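Same chain as my last thread, 502 residues:
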Amino acid sequence: MIRATSSQQRVILLTATLAGAFVRLIHPLTSDYPLNDGGLFYTLTRDLLAAGGALPRFTAYNQSAIPYAYPPLAFYLTAGIVALTRLPLMTLLRLLPPLLSCFTIPAFYLLARRLLPAPRPALLATFAFALLPTAFDPLIVGAGLTRAPGLLFALLTLARFHDLLNAPRTHTLAQTVLLASLTTLSHPGMAWFTAYSSLILLAFHLRNPEALKSTLGVAAGTILLTAPWWGTLLARHGVAALLSPYQTERFSLAALLTPFTLLFTNEPLVDFLAVLAFFGFLACLRQREHLIPTWLLSIFLFEPRLGAVYSAAPAALLAGIGAEFITGSFRNAEAQSRKTAAKNNLSKLALGFLFIYTLTAAYLAPRYNALNDAEAVAMNWVRSNTPVQATFIVLTGNSAYGTDYVSEWFPALSERASLATPQGYEWQPGGEFNRRTALHASLQACRDFACLQTWAQTNAIRPHYIYISTKALAENHRTLALPEIAPIFQNNAAAIYPWPGE
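reply #2:
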């Protein structure tokens, strides 16, 4: 077997990074607005700019006294760039997440080189990570403003923590603490992912007597370094503000079966990478290498709602192992064959096909929506022509709140209250987020005005206006029957009606 030189490895890594950058940037670059969501983060950044950099107590989003409890690092970064460059905030929200997500590819390679035995499977795993839809889908949308740096710092934290477990050093401890703190200050979900992933690494290094001591040092250092943020949050809103985001999770042992369905990579055509990951899973069990399979299964235990997203790293590692296993079998077959060299390059042909296929699939995988100018005009009209206290029913026909970009962007651009938008309410205690998601889903199921009236009466809600996204309704193959009410605003994307009796 011919081993790649260091310079060849760098070229291969650069190729993987460029391929990953292509699929991450091509869709945001061809859109005028951030992909999918991002309205909440748009408002949080504006709040920070309006406060002159001081951490606000509440966000203006949806006029609901939502605590400004989100980890603020990404908003400070974005606000700083706006202040220094005068670039439009909307442009940054569109481009910064995919740009930051590109850096997760070399960061993943650093982790792969530590967890895999040789450069070749690590490079194959990096190609898998670069083109795995779940590794970039949630990062390049508007809400990727926090997810992208969160994943970047999480991968770097785990790589450095692995070094610390194997060779405790003061400078390695300091670097791990810094990276873990940056993760914590970027995204709550990525902080949780890093925490239990670190414990899994620790479990496989308990023979090292210094491992537990190093882990406690990282935990203590991270708590201390992030204290200015969480201390302020506790003083203002209590412990509930720190714990409320995790109300969205529901632990389930049944979720452990998800990896074996081979559907968790969200590939649009044939699930090649999922199949390779499955082969890698079997190869690890055969070689009694249990760390990465344990990590993958643990993610689906601790992340039943977004397990596919957080599983991208171990899934890519297993895909690299699976690809190495299969191409290694091809090489063994070649070695035993006496056919001409032109006919026994099966491993190269397999890898070439796999690269072209997965690149094509990664390009086709995203199913994004985004605001357009007509929708922005309608929402801006609401801001300029309705009372500040006005409340709205926003109807799109999309019951999945995570992809209902109109409902999420409406409070940000109109600066008015949307009565069923769930985003932001994960920071309010008492299961408010789950109540709002149910409220949103039941509203979007309505197909006529009688249903809207029943919905409002059942939930003790009295709206002032109805904002109907005719564009979104058409995309969701929905229609709405309204009584003879004249719209007060209408364009080719939306229609706005007064609530009868207002």
